[in-house]
User: What shape does this take?
Amino acid sequence: MLTLPRPKIKICCISSIDEAIMAVKHGADAIGLVGNMPSGPGIIDDDLIAQIAQNVPPPIGTFLLTSERKSEGIISHYKKVYTNTVQIVDSLLEKDYSRLKIEMPGVKIVQVIHVLSEKQIDEALEVEPWVDALLLDSGNPNLKVKILGGTGQQHDWKLSRKIRDAVKKPVFLAGGINENNVKQALEEVNPYGIDLCSSVRTNGKLDPFKLEKFFKSVL
Assistant: This one.
């Protein structure tokens, strides 16, 4: 029987150096650092993001979650924190990804796709050539107050599988994934990586016991 490699695990909404160290010690391949957002959990200031990123050893991914929608705004945000990855949580206006690559050499670009309908298949195919990975999440950027992640809600994994099958770049899956449904998520979507926030927290704080249980569930 073929054994599939363990998916990459990203622990998002990291709020301190101690949380970052805890996530890495339990096996995280990447951490998410949430910049200014219109809503959602885990928002911290840029100075703290920079401090955390400086204290995370390679080759762990340090993802800056930015809600900036113009290339100059994203570049400016990145230069305040110097993470090794930038996760764009909303659509990029003018699709000026080439400027990001020029101004942020060596930095990985991950584009979030909020899975609402089959329209997101075309959206993913449009941006795929310009990014290093896609992240499929359960937000809704069309609301008056945008929801751009951290919902703890599962979206339609059948749609996520269609997107995953349509693209060639790595795909992370986020939204309501926990120790009880992660195996189902892996079977149904077969993502490159899994992204977690609320399911490994208690009262908003990263919980070492929930982390341990989650990592055991994906072995």
Remarks:
- Helices lie at 17-26, 46-54, 71-81, 97-103, 119-127, 157-166, 182-189, 208-217.
- Residues 27 and 185 are 19 Å apart (CA to CA).
